[in-house]
Amino acid sequence: MSSTDSPSPSLSRAMVQLRVNGVSRSVALDPDRHLLYVLREELGLTGTKYGCGEGECGACTVLVDGVAVRACQTRIGEAAGRSVTTIEGLAGEKGPHPVQQAFIDAGAFQCGFCTPGMVVAAAALLSRKPRPSDPEVRAALDGNLCRCGGYLRILDAVQRASQRLREAGESTR
Ligand code: FES
Ligand code: FES
After folding, report:
1. Which of 160, 20, 36, 19 is nearest to 96 (CA)?
2. Which residues in the chain come in under a pLDDT of 70?
Protein backbone atom coordinates (compact mmCIF):
# COMPACT_ATOMS: atom_id res chain seq x y z
CA MET A 1 0.00 0.00 0.00
CA SER A 2 1.40 3.40 -0.89
CA SER A 3 1.50 6.16 1.66
CA THR A 4 -1.43 7.84 -0.09
CA ASP A 5 -3.52 4.70 0.49
CA SER A 6 -3.02 4.76 4.27
CA PRO A 7 -5.99 6.00 6.21
CA SER A 8 -5.26 8.97 8.42
CA PRO A 9 -4.97 8.07 12.10
CA SER A 10 -8.09 10.04 12.94
CA LEU A 11 -10.15 8.16 10.37
CA SER A 12 -8.75 4.73 11.21
CA ARG A 13 -9.74 4.95 14.89
CA ALA A 14 -13.28 3.77 15.40
CA MET A 15 -15.03 5.36 18.32
CA VAL A 16 -17.50 3.92 20.77
CA GLN A 17 -20.08 5.69 22.87
CA LEU A 18 -20.80 4.90 26.46
CA ARG A 19 -22.38 6.71 29.37
CA VAL A 20 -20.09 7.26 32.32
CA ASN A 21 -21.69 8.54 35.50
CA GLY A 22 -24.61 9.81 33.45
CA VAL A 23 -22.51 11.65 30.86
CA SER A 24 -22.22 10.48 27.28
CA ARG A 25 -18.56 9.89 26.36
CA SER A 26 -16.89 8.97 23.10
CA VAL A 27 -13.66 7.00 23.32
CA ALA A 28 -11.42 5.21 20.86
CA LEU A 29 -12.28 1.59 20.23
CA ASP A 30 -8.99 -0.12 20.87
CA PRO A 31 -9.67 -3.86 21.09
CA ASP A 32 -6.78 -4.34 23.49
CA ARG A 33 -7.75 -1.54 25.82
CA HIS A 34 -9.69 -2.22 28.97
CA LEU A 35 -12.26 -0.04 30.64
CA LEU A 36 -10.06 0.57 33.69
CA TYR A 37 -7.42 2.42 31.68
CA VAL A 38 -10.00 4.46 29.78
CA LEU A 39 -11.61 5.54 33.04
CA ARG A 40 -8.37 6.42 34.77
CA GLU A 41 -6.16 7.70 31.97
CA GLU A 42 -8.59 9.20 29.47
CA LEU A 43 -11.49 10.31 31.63
CA GLY A 44 -9.54 11.15 34.80
CA LEU A 45 -11.72 8.97 37.02
CA THR A 46 -8.96 7.74 39.28
CA GLY A 47 -11.29 6.63 42.07
CA THR A 48 -11.37 3.26 40.32
CA LYS A 49 -8.14 1.61 41.40
CA TYR A 50 -5.56 -0.49 39.64
CA GLY A 51 -4.69 -3.31 41.99
CA CYS A 52 -3.64 -6.50 40.24
CA GLY A 53 -4.77 -5.90 36.66
CA GLU A 54 -5.69 -9.58 36.50
CA GLY A 55 -9.23 -9.74 37.85
CA GLU A 56 -8.13 -11.03 41.25
CA CYS A 57 -8.45 -8.14 43.71
CA GLY A 58 -11.66 -6.22 42.95
CA ALA A 59 -10.04 -2.79 43.37
CA CYS A 60 -11.24 -1.83 39.88
CA THR A 61 -14.90 -2.78 40.40
CA VAL A 62 -17.41 -0.56 38.59
CA LEU A 63 -21.03 -0.98 37.58
CA VAL A 64 -21.92 -1.69 33.97
CA ASP A 65 -25.68 -1.44 33.54
CA GLY A 66 -25.92 -1.88 37.30
CA VAL A 67 -23.85 -5.06 37.45
CA ALA A 68 -20.52 -5.10 39.28
CA VAL A 69 -17.67 -5.95 36.91
CA ARG A 70 -13.90 -5.87 36.95
CA ALA A 71 -12.92 -2.87 34.83
CA CYS A 72 -9.45 -4.34 34.29
CA GLN A 73 -11.03 -7.34 32.59
CA THR A 74 -13.70 -5.47 30.60
CA ARG A 75 -12.63 -4.57 27.09
CA ILE A 76 -13.80 -1.17 26.01
CA GLY A 77 -15.85 -2.71 23.22
CA GLU A 78 -17.87 -4.63 25.80
CA ALA A 79 -18.84 -1.35 27.46
CA ALA A 80 -20.00 0.24 24.21
CA GLY A 81 -23.51 1.58 24.47
CA ARG A 82 -23.70 0.75 28.15
CA SER A 83 -24.00 2.78 31.30
CA VAL A 84 -20.92 2.76 33.52
CA THR A 85 -20.98 3.97 37.11
CA THR A 86 -17.77 4.51 39.01
CA ILE A 87 -17.27 5.44 42.65
CA GLU A 88 -17.37 9.10 41.58
CA GLY A 89 -20.86 8.60 40.18
CA LEU A 90 -22.44 6.80 43.14
CA ALA A 91 -23.14 9.87 45.24
CA GLY A 92 -26.31 11.78 44.52
CA GLU A 93 -27.20 15.45 44.71
CA LYS A 94 -28.11 15.01 48.37
CA GLY A 95 -24.70 13.70 49.35
CA PRO A 96 -22.87 10.38 49.64
CA HIS A 97 -24.51 7.14 48.58
CA PRO A 98 -25.83 5.28 51.65
CA VAL A 99 -23.08 2.70 51.23
CA GLN A 100 -20.44 5.43 51.18
CA GLN A 101 -21.94 6.99 54.30
CA ALA A 102 -22.09 3.62 56.03
CA PHE A 103 -18.40 3.00 55.31
CA ILE A 104 -17.63 6.38 56.88
CA ASP A 105 -19.86 5.71 59.90
CA ALA A 106 -18.39 2.25 60.45
CA GLY A 107 -14.79 3.38 59.89
CA ALA A 108 -14.58 0.61 57.31
CA PHE A 109 -11.27 1.57 55.75
CA GLN A 110 -7.66 2.10 56.69
CA CYS A 111 -5.52 2.93 53.65
CA GLY A 112 -8.68 3.13 51.55
CA PHE A 113 -7.24 1.49 48.46
CA CYS A 114 -9.83 -1.26 48.32
CA THR A 115 -12.67 1.01 49.38
CA PRO A 116 -14.00 2.21 46.00
CA GLY A 117 -14.26 -1.36 44.73
CA MET A 118 -15.79 -2.55 48.00
CA VAL A 119 -18.37 0.24 48.01
CA VAL A 120 -19.35 -0.32 44.39
CA ALA A 121 -19.62 -4.09 44.89
CA ALA A 122 -21.70 -3.56 48.03
CA ALA A 123 -24.00 -1.12 46.25
CA ALA A 124 -24.55 -3.69 43.50
CA LEU A 125 -25.35 -6.36 46.09
CA LEU A 126 -27.86 -4.19 47.94
CA SER A 127 -29.58 -3.12 44.75
CA ARG A 128 -30.38 -6.76 43.94
CA LYS A 129 -30.66 -8.02 47.51
CA PRO A 130 -31.68 -5.30 49.99
CA ARG A 131 -31.51 -7.54 53.05
CA PRO A 132 -28.49 -9.82 52.68
CA SER A 133 -27.36 -12.16 55.42
CA ASP A 134 -23.78 -11.89 56.64
CA PRO A 135 -22.75 -14.97 54.62
CA GLU A 136 -24.34 -13.43 51.52
CA VAL A 137 -22.36 -10.22 52.04
CA ARG A 138 -19.18 -12.24 52.50
CA ALA A 139 -19.91 -14.21 49.33
CA ALA A 140 -20.70 -11.09 47.29
CA LEU A 141 -17.47 -9.39 48.39
CA ASP A 142 -15.39 -12.53 48.27
CA GLY A 143 -13.44 -11.30 45.25
CA ASN A 144 -12.69 -7.91 46.78
CA LEU A 145 -9.48 -8.05 48.75
CA CYS A 146 -8.54 -5.73 51.60
CA ARG A 147 -4.85 -5.89 52.36
CA CYS A 148 -5.47 -3.96 55.59
CA GLY A 149 -7.74 -6.77 56.76
CA GLY A 150 -10.71 -4.59 57.61
CA TYR A 151 -13.31 -7.21 56.71
CA LEU A 152 -15.34 -7.08 59.94
CA ARG A 153 -15.88 -3.35 59.66
CA ILE A 154 -16.67 -3.68 55.98
CA LEU A 155 -19.31 -6.29 56.82
CA ASP A 156 -20.69 -3.96 59.48
CA ALA A 157 -20.79 -1.10 56.97
CA VAL A 158 -22.71 -3.13 54.41
CA GLN A 159 -25.30 -4.14 57.00
CA ARG A 160 -25.61 -0.52 58.16
CA ALA A 161 -26.15 0.53 54.55
CA SER A 162 -28.76 -2.20 54.11
CA GLN A 163 -30.66 -0.91 57.12
CA ARG A 164 -30.30 2.71 56.02
CA LEU A 165 -31.60 1.93 52.53
CA ARG A 166 -34.56 -0.02 53.89
CA GLU A 167 -35.45 2.78 56.28
CA ALA A 168 -35.19 5.31 53.46
CA GLY A 169 -37.45 3.12 51.34
CA GLU A 170 -39.97 2.78 54.14
CA SER A 171 -40.00 6.53 54.81
CA THR A 172 -40.96 7.24 51.20
CA ARG A 173 -43.89 4.81 51.16
S1 FES B 1 -7.23 -4.43 39.30
FE2 FES B 1 -8.98 -5.39 38.47
S3 FES B 1 -9.34 -7.08 39.76
FE4 FES B 1 -7.45 -6.25 40.49
S1 FES C 1 -8.47 -0.42 53.65
FE2 FES C 1 -6.44 -0.77 52.92
S3 FES C 1 -6.74 -2.30 51.39
FE4 FES C 1 -8.65 -2.17 52.36
Report:
1. 160
2. 1-12, 170-173
